[in-house]
Amino acid sequence: MAESPVQLLRLHARHAPFNARGLAAHATALADAAGIRPTNASARAAPSARAVRFYVASGLLDRPEGTGTSATYNYRHLLQLLAIKIRQREGQTLEAIKKEMREVTGDALERRVATSLAPALVTNGAGIQPREDDGPATWRRVAVADGIELHVRDDSPAAREEALLAMREAVRAALGRPELR
């Protein structure tokens, strides 16, 4: 029996708690896999740790547990961040999103996010698409930096060119080395 998008989204709760950078990276991976791109030119497709802190200060995200570098974010924060990116894709302003976020319950938020991300969530619990045949898989190699590369199976939703580029840039940003960008 196939799992529902909500059940598949809940599998991501096991990755919590997050720090701000981890929350941003996890949301970016899901948004990229789903092809979420904001229509508003001033909004970035991939949230950053700085954006997470801005959203908290602006009241778009709930306050994390702890403060400063010890602040931790949970599954609800992930849902909220994904909802922000989804609504930006739909052309909503941050002010309109903030108003909506105050009115939506946790279950409704989870259902809304799961429905929007459904194509990217259609994977098994390990995050790997089940294969229909036992034939050899073909893989794409994406160079990130000297000695670092990503391997993505061609039949994965993440094998789209824009997703590959986003993943490469996310890994480079995570490395924090400007010469790699």
TrEMBL record:
HTH merR-type domain sequence ranges: 41-103
MF GO annotations: DNA binding
Gene3D superfamilies referenced in this protein's UniProt entry, alphabetically: 1.10.1660.10
Source species, domain of life: Bacteria
Pfam families according to UniProt: MerR_1
SUPFAM superfamilies per record: Putative DNA-binding domain
Biological process (GO), any one: regulation of DNA-templated transcription
Name the UniProt record assigns to this protein: HTH merR-type domain-containing protein
Native source species: Roseisolibacter agri
